[in-house]
Amino acid sequence: MSATTFYPCADSAVHMNLRGVQHLEANRFLEAITEFSRALTTVKTVLSQQDSNGNLIMETDEYATKEPRLIFQFAEPDDDDDDDEDEDSSSMKVDQQQEEGSPFIFKSAIVASFSCRASPAQDQDDFHSLVKFSSSILFNLALSYHLAAMEHASSNEQKMKRLLQKALTFYKLAYTMMQDTKNNGVMETMAIANNLGHVQLTVGDSDKARQCYEHLLSTIMFVADTGDRNSIPQFDGFFHSVQAVVLPFGTTAQAA
Fold it and tell me: Could you tell me where the Acidic residues compositional bias lies (predicted)?
């Protein structure tokens, strides 16, 4: 069964987004931005296909017994080594950042895919899934501009700032859309707060950067209270960002 039966063109957007993620992981930022932009345009087209009652127009398949549903997850880095080596490498990177005093950048893009479900889909669920897909692509666009900007940090400050302004715009759009549709999960909240803080700090707005990292800190404390710390591989990186900007050095050991 083809996902296009239920989401006209949405499966194309899924593949565009995936290609964008692959380009991003290979540091091909221009290509990533192109694919994410195409994916966003495609999803907007799907969302614009509504009937007079505001419901999404979708074809039916008389032979279909399950319906595809969009699911989202953050991309994981390639694991060429064993888990112990990965953990050691991650710790070394965070330690290096702590020594340098620079906040952590969350670099994992959001991957969308289809999963089949047996229960009939509701139009509202379809709509919110596609809106969440839009916000995920906006995050990926922001991340692409963010990482592209940091490539020019030492060579072209003007270009870096232009790219960071675009990253700032897309991070804010992604967060606003997630808030409006109540699609902001813990990881999404932490990733956007962390990276927004890094962008604001880099462009010289320390007050707004601090606000972002304070929001990140409140989410970190929530995660710690619920015992979900181990479910977030980048937890130490997020904590380092807060440590570098918000927490007095004397309180970090207790907070960790």
Answer: 76-89
How far apart are the C-alpha atoms of 236 and 242, rounded to whole Å? 10
Chain centroid to CA 36: how far? 12
Taking only the tens place, the pLDDT of each residue in 203-219 is 999 999 999 999 999 99
Total-model pTM: 0.82
Burial class (CB in 10 A: 0-12, 13-18, 19+), 84: exposed
Domain ranges for the chain? 3-255
Distance CA 43, CA 56 (A): 12
Q: b or e along 21-55 (b: 16 or more beta carbons within 10 Å of the residue's beta carbon)?
A: bbbbeeebbebbbbbbebbbebbeebbeeeeeeee
Distance CA 50, CA 135 (A): 20
Question: In terms of Cα–Cα distance, which of 109, 95, 142 is closest to 237?
Answer: 95
pLDDT digits (tens, 9 = 90+) for 103-143: 899 999 999 988 765 444 444 577 888 889 999 999 999 99
Which tens digits make up the pLDDT trace of 141-154?
Answer: 999 999 999 999 88
SS3 state at 67: strand
